[in-house]
Each structure stands twice: as structure tokens, then as C-alpha cells.
Amino acid sequence: MQETAGAGKLEQGASPLLALPALVLFALFALVPMGVVVALSFTNYNGISAPTSAGLANWSRFLHDSTTHHAIWLSLEIMLLSWAFQTPLSILLGVFVAGRERYRAVLAAIFFLPLLFSAAAIAVTWKNLLDPNFGLVQNLAHRLHADRFPLDWLGSPSLALYTVVFIISWQFIPFHMLLYQAGARQIPLDVYEAAEIDGAGRSAKFWKITLPLLRNTIVTSSTLIVVGSLTYFDLVFILTGGGPGFATRILPLDMYINGFQANELGYASAISVVLVAAGLGLSMLLIRLTGFGKFRSAYE
Amino acid sequence: MTKSRRAVALVAALALALAALAATAAASGGKVLVWTIQRTENNAENAAVKSFKNASVQIFANDPYKQKLSVSLGSGKGPDVFMNWGGGGLKQYVDAHKVVDLTPYLNADKKWKNRFFANVLQTAAFDGRDYGIPNVGMQPVLLFYNKAVFAKYNLQPPKTWADLLNVVKTLKDNSVTPFILGGQSKWPDLMWEEYLVDRVGGPQAFDAVAAGKKNAWSNPDIIKANTMLQQLVDAGAFGSFESTTYDGTVTATLLGTGKGAMELMGNWEYGAVLQNSPNTIKNNELGWQPFPSVPGGKGNPKDLAGNTSNFYSISSSTKNLASAVKFLKTQVMSPAYIKTLISDGDIPPVKGIQAQLKKSANATFTLYNYNLVQNAPHFQHSWDQVLSPAAASALLTNLDRLLLKQITPQQFSANMNKVK
Q1: What's the start-to-end Cα distance of chain B, in Å?
Q2: Contacts A–B by Cβ distance under 8 A
Q3: CA distances to B197, B300, B375 from B305, in Å
Q4: What pLDDT tens digit does each residue of chain A (300 aa) get?
């Protein structure tokens, strides 16, 4: 009797009350602050005096501020570069360490290391390695009598962005490698065995089986990279502070500098509203474009 | 078991609540709460609070302090006396009516007011009203140089702009970085800007900017100063400044080891060299002098730039106004306070302390600084502290771009004119 009642409840799904704690926390720490930020974007606020109404001034500034436009452009650039750099490398590494041999497991553990460091530690380390006066890179080049070689990796406006993308990728590739490793291990071995019987070689198996069956993993990983690139902050902040000039002043940094260095929290709020909207829009777009929402099995 | 645990928890909660009550009671019980930032030594502040008896001090790290202060003053809570940097940052609080006007108290006691250097007190005064009194030593910016490098290439420290260009050329030809500059930190760039604008255009050029005059940045003297600055960049005077950070270690080491020949930096660099490259000081290889003159310019070559001092101001939400004023008057820059500052290597901005300075550890350097400020017709407080935070942020970014040659001096002025 009791068992049937229990089963009946199960069919109705869990009680909505169970979601309440999470919903309350989400509302309190995500939705309410977002609402406040939207409201602040229509004010002049320096964080000291009470905010005064600014009408649409912050938004019209957003439309005309060339520094912010440049920041948006840089954010797009860093997004595309991160994706283009991280995805192929992560797939290759992930598929490689998916194999069961012991040496692959050892290598996987080593590749995994950067993921364990905090972004701040990674930034400080790389900054020191690349220091033009005392850095290891400079030092090595000097010993090899290649004094012309060590470019000013973080100091040159034309190189800084690429250096930053490289270091970001160094940090995040291990994570995506892990995703692909798990994805590749899900692929049933008999699919490969069947292909072998049909005479498929190593590269044919990769292109015709592994890659198509990793489809859902690629979508997940790409979404994380693309949306995640909107939140890059700590690493860039410590490495370059947005410089030299505007060379690495991506949108989150532009927001920080406007908000907390220039004390213009109204304008910074307008920028953060755009960041939130862009993040939401991008993830929705990616889900729609890739049909991920339908959770179609990759094996169909 | 559970019961006794609960009892313990209850007692603990009660104790916490009581402690909190006691704390608030102490805060409003006439005790002066002082907020200040961490320095190498905070002995003077600690001793002042101890000797006043009815006061306590809280010490914060430099960077979080600004935000902490703005939050607490903005909400009307917080300290009675707070440390600040004068200038535009303080003015924001003054405009928001968060700061007590000290003018009547200072005027009522001329002896108190006359203790301080007038050109330093000026930093915390707006429209002729005083809002703060100095609480630490003066930090003028000097041109430091490595004597060994100068001797090796048979050079004399540059007295004029023409000398400076010649010295740069010789050093550059010998693969020595002429000037060390922590350009990635941005604010060190500002020292060059402050001195060049003063030497070319006199103090009035920046006064117009600080007063918010329309198109004040388009002053031809400022454009000329920035053109000269870009000439220096073209001459390779600053080495790999774009990726050099100022952190108190890097530049002092470069200067001490002679990898770079000169550095324009606040007088604290003496201490940094002493720490990172002690032999340079021991062998008398560190030289210093004022910024060179620019012949034909409007500025007096004796004019200085730097940090005049930090300041103590009183929060207008204080419930202990009388004690707070008394604390400032009797404890800050009292003979004992001055003595402690000097023994910690500071140079207090007060009159008539040569004899005391002569007995200090680095007497030669300290006295040099003291006399320099005393004889300076104008002591310009750091621009990023004088201007509003928004303008300061724009200034540092535009200056960075000027040095990278991404914008012309004309564009620099146009960009800065647009900032409120």
C-alpha cells in the first residue's frame, strides 16, 4: 500500500519544494544583484555619494565610447582565438590519453597539472618567466646568444594579446582534455572493431568514428570556452592590467577599470549588463545552433 | 550529550553577542577610532594612540583601504579619524559632506597651523578651507643615478634638457638602459609628465587642469612637454618599459646593479636600493639630484613633484568631534611623533627639525630632501591624487598610450579635455 503511494509520488516528479533552497539562493545572489546592476546603469554613482539619475547617459556613452568598442572587439578576438587554439589541442590530447596504456595515464596526470593552480598563481609565474629583465626566457635567449630573439612578450602591443591567449589556453586545455578523454572512453570498442574489419586505418577511425561521436562533447566544451571567455579577468588583470595601451583591455577589464579605478559605477554597470546579456545570448545561440537542447544521441 | 552541546553553543552565542555589544559600546563611548594604512613601520601611529589613551587605531593594507573607506564613509559609519591622500580623492568626500572642515580649529591655534609646511598643507585644502593635516613624511620625486655607470662612460649627471639628451645617447650607444621606468604599472610614467609639464609650462599649467578649466589640457606647453616625452621614447631612453613593473624590487635592482643608469622615482627608492642592492649605498654609488631644467621654460628648476604627505581627516559622522580634534592637535606631529617618524626613516613636513634630521640614520639623504622641499617654490602633489578618480584613470591610460606612441600629444590633450 505504502509502496504504491510512493510510486505514485515518483511519477509526479520530485516536490517543487525541493528546489526552493536553490531558487532562494539564486534569486538572492544572482537575480537581485542583476536587477540592481540594471537599475544602476541608469544612474551616476561614484560609490560614495548616493546615486543620482543619469537617464540614458551611460547607455549613450556605451554607444560612443571607442575604448569600450575596442574592448568588445578584443573580447570577440580572444573568444575566437581561445576556441581555435584550445579545441583541436584538447581533442587530440583527450583522445590520446583516453587509451588504456599505463604511460598514457602518467602523461594525463602531468598534462592535468595546470588545472590545479589558481589563475593568480599562473599569471604571476608566467609574468616572471617572461620578464624582460630577469625572466627565464630572456635569460635562456641571452645564454644562447640569441639576444635579438626574446621579444617583449607582454610589453609589445602587437604581441600581448597572443601571449595572453596562449597562457589562458595553457591553463584551460587540461580541463577540456579531461572532457574529451571521458567522451572518447564512452565510445564502444566494437564500433572500432567493426571498422577495423572493414579495413579502416588509424586516421580513418579518428575522422569517421571518434570525431563524429564526440559531437556532444565538442558542443559542451565549445560552449564553456566561448561563454567562459567573457569572464576572463584575473589572469589578464595580473599579467598586463589591460595594457600596454589598450592591447589587452577586454570587456571585463574595461568594466573593472571604469567601475573601481575611475569610480564610475553607473557606466560600469551598463557594461556588465551587456556582459550578462552577451553570456546568456551566446549560450542560447550555441544550444540552438547545435541542437544540443534536444539531447539527441550521438550514436543515431 | 546533545543537551550539553546545545548549552555550550548557547553560551558561546551569548558570549559573542555580549562581545559585539561591548565593542559597539566602546566605539561610541568617546574613544577616537583612527583608520590608517600599513607602512613599513606604523610605530608613530601606535604610539600616538597609546599616549592619547582614549583612542584606538586600525591598520589596513594599502589597496583594499580605498574601497573599505569609501564604503564605510558612504554609509555614515566607520572611523572618527581617517587617513587619506588629499587631492581629488579627499575632495569627493568633502563634496559629499563626509569630512569635517578643520579651518576654524587651525585658525584658533596658529601655533598648530604654523607647525606644517604650507606647500604640503595645500594638498588637503579646497577653496581655502583645510580638511586634513599631514600624518607621514614627504616624498618628493628625485632623479636617481648610478655613479659607477656615469664614471665608466665619463658622464656628468644631466643639469639641463640638452645634457639629458646627450647622456641618453651615450648610454644607448653603450647598450645601457638610460632610464629605468616601470611603465606597466603606469603611475611611474606620471612622474615624467609632472616634471616636464612643470619645467615647460610652470605650475599654472596643471593648476588650470585641476581647477577644471575648459580645454586646459590643450595648453601649448603641455603639448610641448608631451612632444619632448615622445622624443625621449624615440631615443630609446626607457628600455623595455612596457613590461617593467614597479614593485619596489625590480627597478631598484636594475639601478643598483647598473643595468640601468638613472631612474626618476619617489625618494622611497633610496630605501629600496638599500634593501635590494646594499653595496650600491655602501660604496657611495647611488647619486640623486632634482629633475633637470628646461631652458626657456616657465617652471622654476627648484619646483618639486611627488607625494607631499598623507593626511588625517575627521569624518563628519563622528560622535567624538572634540576628542578627535584634540587627538590631531596633541598627538599627530607632536615632538614624540616626529621623533618616531624620523627614526623610521621618514621626513616629516614640519618646520625647524634640521638638527634632529642631522642625527638620523641616512642623514645626508634625509637632509637633502628636507632642504629641497623647504626651498621649493612649488611642491606639486601627484596628479593622480589631485584629480578625480575618473580623470586619474583616464590620465594613466592616455599617458601609457602616449609613451607607446599610439596617440600624438594633440590627441592626448583632446582625449583628456573630454574627461570630466
Answers
A1: 66
A2: 88
A3: 11, 12, 13
A4: 444 444 444 556 677 888 888 999 989 988 999 999 999 999 988 877 778 888 888 999 999 888 899 999 999 999 999 999 999 999 999 999 888 888 888 888 888 888 889 889 999 999 989 888 788 887 787 777 766 665 788 888 888 999 999 999 999 999 999 999 999 998 888 888 888 888 888 888 888 888 888 988 998 899 899 988 988 899 999 999 887 888 999 999 999 999 888 888 999 999 999 999 998 898 888 878 776 656 555 555
| B96 vs A49, A127, A260: nearest CB | A49
CB contact at 8 A, B416 and B217:
yes
- Which residue among A153, A243, A263 places its CB closest to the CB of B184? A243
C-alpha cell at B291: 629633475
Residue matched to cell numbers 537617464: A55
C-alpha cell read off for B140: 618628493
Q: Residues of A at the B interface (Cβ-Cβ below 8 Å)? A: 46-49, 67, 127, 130-134, 152-157, 240-241, 243-246, 257-258, 260-264
Name the amino acid, one letter, at B204.
Q
- What global pTM score does this model have? 0.79
In whole angstroms, what is the distance from residue A45 CA to residue B152 CA? 56
Nearest to A261 among B98, B245, B393 (CB): B393
Cα distance between residue B35 and residue B30, in whole Å: 16
Question: For residue A244, what is the nearest residue in chain B, using CA coordinates?
Answer: B242
B56 contact A CB<8A = no
Residues 386-405 of B with CB under 8 A from A: 388-390, 392-394, 397, 400-401, 404
Answer whether B353's CB lies under 8 Å from B342's CB: yes
Under 8 Å between Cβ of B252 and B281: no
Query: Among B158, B182, B163, which residue's Cα sits nearest to residue B238?
Result: B182
